[in-house]
Design brief:
three-stranded antiparallel sheet; 2 domains; alpha+beta; four-stranded antiparallel sheet; 39% helix; single chain
Amino acid sequence: MEYRCVAGSVAGFVQQLASSYLPHGYWFYVSGMIPFAKDPREVDAKLIAKYGIGVSRTSRARRKAVGIANVHYLRYDRRFVLLATHGFHPFYDEEAQSIRDVRRVPIRIEGYSISVAKGDFRRKEHPDKPPVRDNRWRARVQIDREWYKGLKAYFLDIAPHRTAEALASELLSLPFEPYAPVRQQLLNLWRHINRRRQAANLEPVSITAIRLRRRIVRPFEPVSETESAAAVNLKRAVS
């Protein structure tokens, strides 16, 4: 059975983490970069064999039942993460000095910050009932704080000097998938831009400049050239 581990895009890497691994307790991780002198495919094969990663779902279930941890491996370009569940496993001995808990230290890649946190308040069943906090651990994807600061500074700088259409085009081209926390950050950015434009008596940017629905990608298939170009342009803007 082939174990697929090479994400075709940043969006695919993030989606696989947030939708397939973190919700199932893969909270303990090691992150690294493969040196340019090494062939990433050889590193993939070595780590998959070393930690017994390429096994079936039934094998993972049997391991979990007897207290043995399961491990996943995921790579995009030369950036990789090894993720493990609770339990006994050589991973915890071999990587002891480098292991992080995603509930405390987010995984960061290309401007994203991916973590696991307790949920917010649940939707009220009746307006008169008190709010109830959702205590389940849930994957949380947002724009990294420093990247967001850079984006905000950039857009506030250009807000009075570009047309509403040009600003809308730039906002729409941002390569961040609108997971709920990302969507809130982008809406806040849109509000800041329009406050700046209102102060200068300029036309506001339409809310349609914010993409509200996330695209579901195939994690292990390559990204389009358009999306790749958007990511490069973003790096230039916030650097």
